[in-house]
TrEMBL record:
The chain crosses the membrane at residues 23-42, 68-89, 120-138, 158-177, 184-206, 226-245, 257-281, 301-325. It is found in: Membrane. Keywords: Amino-acid transport, Membrane, Transmembrane, Transmembrane helix, Transport. The keyword Methyltransferase does not apply. It is a multi-pass membrane protein. This is Vacuolar amino acid transporter 1. Residues 53-330 form the Amino acid transporter transmembrane domain. It holds the Pfam family Aa_trans. One of its GO terms (cellular component) is vacuolar membrane. It comes from Morella rubra (Chinese bayberry). The keyword Membrane applies. It comes from the Eukaryota. Its main location: membrane. One of its GO terms (molecular function) is L-amino acid transmembrane transporter activity.
Amino acid sequence: MESQDQLPQSEQQGKGTTFLKTCFNGINALAGLSIWLCWLVLTNNDLTTALPAGVGILSIPYALSQGGWLSLMLLFLVASLCCYTGLLIQRCMEANPVIKSYPDIGEIAFGSKGRAMISAFMYLELYLIAVEFLILDGDSLEKLFPNMGFKIAGLKVGGKRAFVLLTALVILPTTWLKNLGVMAYLSAGGVLATIAVVVCVLWTGVGEGVGFHEGNMFVDVGGLPTAISLFTFCYSGHAVFPTLCNSMKDRSQFSKVLLVCFLVSTISYGFMGIIGYLMYGDILKSQVTLNLPIRKITTSIAIYTTLISPLTKYAVIITPIATAIEEKFSFGKIRVIVSSSGRCL
């Protein structure tokens, strides 16, 4: 059985990513597959309305407000279970050197039909997430700059379509990066963006007079399903774990990478949930940024950071798809053509 998801030869021959770089890619992947963007509506240059799109770190305070303080224990439970399943993936890969990806596991377990089914679901998931990144950024930028447009060959393009195209052009160079070691620098930017948002929310509570006096509910059984679903979606980065493992110089360290990634992510999620719930309590909206006071520099930084963040995550998300397509064409110019055109598409 041949794997269809092997990384380029340069990485397979001991030129893979280091422990630290893989940690950056892993943390960025966990946050990257948990989309957290706001759709903004500007009226008279004021932020008056914000429509939620997606979940993630910004929705953790809302999850806490739905389930109460006891639901915070569920966050740690979900994180532990998801980390354990990630370790199971590594064990499968160590047990059989042929296994390089989810489809390989599916083929060994269920034959060729299992491989086809798992490939279809996994790559469709990653593809739709990548498309959603473009759409969300396009919608958000359209709300910020409603009258912007340009012409291409005499054809006027404006509104959402214009921003989707511009976003795609900005993201495009990052998709040409095949070395996950280089992508790690983008991932580091994504991690910094997440930290910036957390700091902005914290500063709003400390320096903008909001304070930390709310959040008195211990548990709400009726809200626990909502909390659990939000917590679970925040750790849905497993689709790229095999790719990250294959990219490492020392794959035996991948278990430590998983522990670091889940630990850092859980601390970030937990901290954001606690401060957000203490700040706004039961009046929390679906994303904590929707509660932040308007016309404040910290609010603006948080919002624009969420727009930048997907640009740092796109390449990591599409890498498994691009690699699978490229491995279908293993020779010469055909591989180069397919590689370039596939990543552009």
